[in-house]
Amino acid sequence: MKVAVFALDSVPPEMLFEKLLDKLPNTKRMYQRGMHGVLRTCHPPITVPAWMVMMTGKNPGKLGIYGFRHRKPSSYTEGYIVNSSHVKERTVWEILAEKGKRSIVIGIPPSYPVKHKENVTMVSCFLTPSQERDFTNPSELKQEILKITGGRYLFDVTFRVEDRERIKRELFEMTEKRFDIAEYLIKNNPWDLFILHEIGFDRLHHAFWKFFDPRHPKHIKGNEYERIDEEYYSMVDERIGRLMGMFPDDCITFFLSDHGSAPMMGAFCVNEWLESVGYLKFKQKPTNKVEIEKAEVDWSKTKAWGWGGYYARIFFNVAGREPNGIVPQEELEYEKKRLTQLIREIKDEDGRPMDNRVFEPESLYGIAMGDKPDLMVYFDNLRWRSAGTVGHNSIYLHENDTGPDDSVHSMNGIFLMYNPQKSYTERLVQVRAEDIAPTILSLFGLEGELKSIDGAVIREVKE
Amino acid sequence: MVKYTTVSIPLNLHRRIEKLLEGKTGFKSVSDYVTYVLREVVAMHETRQIPEPFSVEDLTELKRRLAALGYM
Fold first, then answer.
1. Sign of the CA dihedral B54, B58, B64, B65?
2. pLDDT tens digits, one per residue of A131-170
3. Which of A127, A402, A405 sits opposite B62 (nearest CB)?
4. Which CA distances in Å does A3 have to A56, A109, A185?
5. What is the pTM of this model?
6. Which residues of B are less than 8 Å from A81 in CB distance?
7. How close, in Å, is residue B25 to chain A by CA atoms?
8. What is the pLDDT of residue B18?
């Protein structure tokens, strides 16, 4: 028995299971014979930590990972990038490796720096600075990969430039090469668990959503990229079909995604708003766009500030915690409640109420390790992203503050399971990100290996 | 299989943790909670010894890339 996982970053159920399903013969076959449903992702619905939540069965609070970047404790300006060393919990492939089972793991984030472990063949993720680095386990695999890919292996594409044709070219090249590598590894390595993560879907959505989705506020009918979603998904479907042709008959295959995608309505300038409600003061208010870390904030009069991203992280300026903290420890809870209330009352520029969600990490996770924010905010339930920059002289932006972007994240990812030896006739299931690790381990009879998990074995998988 | 051993903590602290866990999810017992907290503290100390995998140039480029990708 083997298990294969296609980790399709940011694929929403409505794209794979509805809009494009008829164009994807391999996916459709599995959809009709397997079981599928919505995968309710973690808070926050972001690539890091979502894949590690799936691969460890632990929620982000237990992992102590709340996004790609964390604030350095007590600092107003310093942050650090999360890397594989910050993942302290055992992943499914590490548990299997201890039992002598072998895994092939490609691109799951964060997996740089690559961990050199026995029984795990690994290619690291898109956080890898360049192909000059040690990005494979074993290290010598790197040369084979560079040989297969003609000396150019793309970990990622960068898209915040208006050169969409180049983005499209690189997107297809990156994904095709990743599948070339996957085929090579499957052919040349014994394996029990195979995981292939593809970031290309996420990049496709961010770069091209307004082109292919007529619902997007900026959609132009008849544009040249109107069917790029179909082209890209079809290419991946064909490559998946080819790869699955190499799997044995007793291989159970999963399609998973870490979050969904939706059209972006705009960016909410969290710091300009905090200033408007008296929580943030500038010594000198910037008149041009600048990151909050570089702005002249008057910390002696500032109670809270925020970070940008798909969700907002709010930090309070707490006495005894931050260098110039002014919120007394005993008033922190009151201030959190007061600010939460104010955030819930925010209206959009047309005066309509926004569906703003505010979370306190401890309440959300039970326990929140590591360098967490004081509050997490989803503006209009993630439809508006948070702008980390200031100097816009407005609270609402209709372009992303970091360049052109077309989509935001949503809480619903995909789950699809296909077992060639069984037919489930389109069975529908509901799963959570935390359920994936125990479910995969249960197929190997190892569900008892995970302690204190936040998920459970998906019952239908075991039936 | 993970093996376990026993450590002692003051009874009063045990009670405080029990109270803390009331209504919280994800922890089956005080031992569970203590294990997590200790792991965190140990990890924090270990992290100080983990070499930063990214050079200053890497970090500048990574931050630029992550901001461009909308994560910041």
1. negative
2. 999 999 999 999 999 999 999 999 999 766 678 899 999 9
3. A127
4. 16, 19, 15
5. 0.90
6. 54, 59, 62-63, 66
7. 5
8. 87
